[in-house]
Amino acid sequence: MWLLAISVWGAPRQATASEAYQQRRERISVSFRNASLAEVLQRIKQQTGYYILYNSDAVRGIGGISFSKADAPVREVLDEALRGTRLEYSIDDDTIVIRGRSGGGNASAPQKAPDKVVSGRVTDTAGAPLVGVNILIQGTATGVVSGSDGGFSIRMPEGRDNLIFSHIGYVSQTLPSAQTRLVRLVQDEQEIENVVVTGIFTRKKESYTGSATTITSGQLARVSNRNVFESLKNIEPSLYIMDNTLMGSDPNTLPDMQLRGITTFPSESTGVNIKGNYQNRPNQPLFILDGFETTAEKVMDMDMTRIESITILKDAAAKALYGSKAANGVIVIETKRLAGNQELVTYTGSIEVSMPDLTSYNLCNAWEKLEAERIEGVYTSANPQTQVDLTKRYNALKAQVLGGLDTYWLAKPLRTGVGHKHTLSVELGDSRKLRAMIDFSYNNVAGVMKGSERTVLSGDVNVSYRKKNFLFRNILSVSNTRSDNSPWGDFGDYARMNPYWSAVDPQTGQIARWAYDEVANPMYDATLGTLDRETYTSVTDNFYAEWQATEALKLTARLGIAVKRSDADEFYPAKHSKFATSAYESTSMQLRKGSYQLDNGKSSDISGEIYANYAKNWGRHYLYVNAGGRIAENTYSAYQHYAEGFPNSQTADITFARQYAQDKKPVGISSITREISFLGTASYSYDDRYNVDLTFRESASSLYGADNRWSSAWSASVAWNLHNEPFLRDQDVLKQFKIRASAGLTGNQNYDTNEVLATYLYYTGATYHGQTGAYLSKMPNPALKWEQRMDYNVGADITIHRATIAFDYYNSVTENMLTDVAIPISTGFDTVKDNLGKVRNRGIEAKLSYTLWQGKQGFFNLFGSIAYNKNIIINLSESLKAYNEKMMAQAQDKSNSTPVLIYQDGMPMNAIWAVPSLGIDPTTGQEIYVRKDGTLTYEYDAQDQVVAGISDPKYRGNFGFAAEYKGFGLSATCTFLGGGQRYNTTLVNKVENVDIHYNVDRRVLYGRWQTPGQNAMFKKLGSYTDENGKQHDEKTRATTRFVQDNNELTFSSLSLYYEFNPRLISKIRLKRLKLAFYMNNIATLSSIRIERGTTYPFARSMSLQLTGTF
């Protein structure tokens, strides 16, 4: 049988196939001792890059070959190898053909004279020529490979008409010879996992020396179809996407995330809370979409069907390409290119159902709440007359409860949200030169609170044009997003309502204005026509040009322009409960009822970059060099207006306001940032065994002090492919064993310009000689430096039989951290931004996947991964002493009930500080505290605080399976976290510091101390008098009694799909039809009982999706 030996390229390469040509090695060095001819040919193939075509029967049994050649021509080596055999060879372009000598022998006879010659060209989906594509005549062993321009020519024997096209990394196609004039191969999704997309160039994973995770569109789709972050949360544990315990499943809240730990102190607010202002958070990774920077909001609103792959760059070798912005990691998103050689239309539609998850709530029902009040003494008084009134009140409530009054307030603002999503993709043209793809999408996300929605309408046009050695591509994206927040208000207001209060007027059946006496009914606000809406429109145009100047040299250029306009409206009419207070009782204050907040913002980004790539093969050596530069400008501005005096809900427009809000005026913020950078990278590979990468980027930004505009980022990394060593090549068990190591320095600039530069404000209330004066709003620091992160990483990638293992250990130190430093008040300021402190993150990441079964009709895979991180402050300046003292004073305040953030050397940044507690004294009902000297006391002193826990989990991970059989697919994913702690605010605020006049946690019934000798977890209530002589219930301050271990296991994802047989659906002119069902956030088991989603509840979701291509 004929065998076509395919040369596998192991050296680093560019993504575009136009550069993927083979540099053949014409001189090689070899040494053989008693080798078989098959082994000799294999070695020649590996060293030269030639394709070798031969009959396996002809070479079988030929052995005992021994010779050595140093830097010899290929023909000389072949002559020596075939000496004494009845075989001969010929070299045609990049293919060596071994055949029997004329006149017989055991080799195959030459092919019969062909009847016809078929010629054509093979490209990828973007129109770039593919080099080295194997083209075989179906049913025979005759074949050729495509040339440097993708062209081929093959002689077809009589009776044969089909050709098979196959290439590494692409899906094979079998086509009639009449349809092979232009063949476009589609990239194989499985092969996407074997490359690393950096956003600047693409590298083969085998020769890549950095730490990166590639996630394909198929992997994303097997987890969720809601949004990118929902999928990433369940796939990659090193990217910690945190649950928002306040906002829960609110579709209009962006998730907070961090990659490999916290690296930055939280920044202070600008003082202007602009709605719709999604500025980057200090620990958030950098997002790259199709080679251009983008925002987390844009990523969340993306249509997931457009995504081809996501690559997470973790260590310095991977992220140093982005220099001063890469310290927090980089997430690179690539969208799909044109996917075929014909006109296609694809529709994807889904229905998504969200159901409230209230399992974390443990509130009293009506009878339990009444009993809790009785136990707490609400209906007991020393005054006889008062006691009579209280008894009447209790009996009346008891009668109502026994009569069936038990309002479940939690359900009132909630619904089962039903949303829908539609995507239409049209691929136009079948030209070698000009091709286009147009996408339209509509996504309506319905939240579980009534009236809560997020609606995204977007369109994208992708045009590609190729002319000889030039390629031009342009992607235009336009999107509009509308975010409607629920008019039903804060979910926490409903959780406070007593269940024996009625939500409707028993006389009229209408929603009551008051639930009880002066207690406002939160449901009533939803009937008033309130408005809380944010909208933004963005237009992005990304242009890419490529010139293949020579076989080794390619020039690329990018130009990106992004414009965004955002608006936000927040309106509350006069009858809203926020105005139902004693402050609005006077006549003048009555006229101020009703408020309107109007925000407007706009931003623009423009960036351009140009790079030159050079790739060269010689002998066993491969060199790749990339050099270029980037220039960019970002401008942002936002304005805010407050008005008041709206008599009714029909005047929901700011122009109907009676006046500007008292003590308010129009305010705003603005910034402009410019940057320039130069990049150089070099990669060297020897024999696909030893790989070295070097990266250097020099950047300048207007964001930092005049004395330190420039900053350098660099990385150096190595990798050793042990599986390509001669002693491991001839075995099938160990398919991959790569060891890698890297070190490098990157930077972070996720800061607002106004935080670090000299910013002036005008004196608007006074003039001098007709001139308006200005003053510094913050003390500038011209010596301010860039935050920098030094990363060290070692790792291994191993594939043994059916098991794939990836392991990484990292140690990173962030220095020059930006923070507020106390300065003498005589300067006119109390703080200034400065570079202080160092933070270290150390961790381990491990992944394992195992294929239990793999066949032609399906597969069954098991997978699991875990990430561990330890964060500590290793060097903190004494200048933060003032900040810590401020926090200590806050912790000592009798009205404070939550832990404060304190920074101290050797401690984690997210440490939970609390005073040690031995529990409740059974005799007195008071809490017993432990002083620093070990003595016991009843007196709380914040100076005795210790680190009682860490709010971030020490480890996170996932496990599950993915299976497919005859078109049916099933996958399930569970996530887990542990090793961290949480301060149980539910026990503090709804059990111990409870306001008994509102609903409480059930644990208040049996946990509070009542009588001497009682063992209880919760202390008796106390009170104190403030400086104004007003009596208050004393709050339980931060104590170790409420610090609990936080371990969670979540059944996060379940998906089931069926891919219809193409033969069946072809009868209705469909090329593809897929039906999928998803469930997300199914159930959570936790070691701590705490309320989650206190402002907006969490939710479980289900989705049914249909995809059809015709």
Automatic annotation (TrEMBL):
Ion transport listed as a keyword: no
Q: What is its main location?
A: membrane
Provide the alphabetized UniProt keywords: Cell outer membrane, Membrane, Transmembrane, Transmembrane beta strand, Transport
What kind of membrane protein is this, topologically?
Multi-pass membrane protein
Q: Where in the cell is it found?
A: Cell outer membrane
Query: By its UniProt entry, which Pfam families does this protein fall under?
Result: CarbopepD_reg_2, Plug, STN
Domain Secretin/TonB short N-terminal: residue ranges: 50-101
Q: Which domain of life is it from?
A: Bacteria
Please name the InterPro entries in this protein's record. Answer: Beta-barrel_TonB_sf, CarboxyPept-like_regulatory, Plug_dom, Plug_dom_sf, Secretin/TonB_short_N, TonB-dep_OMP_SusC/RagA, TonB-dep_OMP_SusC/RagA_CS, TonB-dep_rcpt-like
Please provide, in alphabetical order, the Gene Ontology terms of the cellular component aspect for this entry: cell outer membrane
Q: Which family does it belong to?
A: Belongs to the TonB-dependent receptor family.
Record protein name field: SusC/RagA family TonB-linked outer membrane protein
Q: What is the lineage of its organism?
A: Bacteria, Pseudomonadati, Bacteroidota, Bacteroidia, Bacteroidales
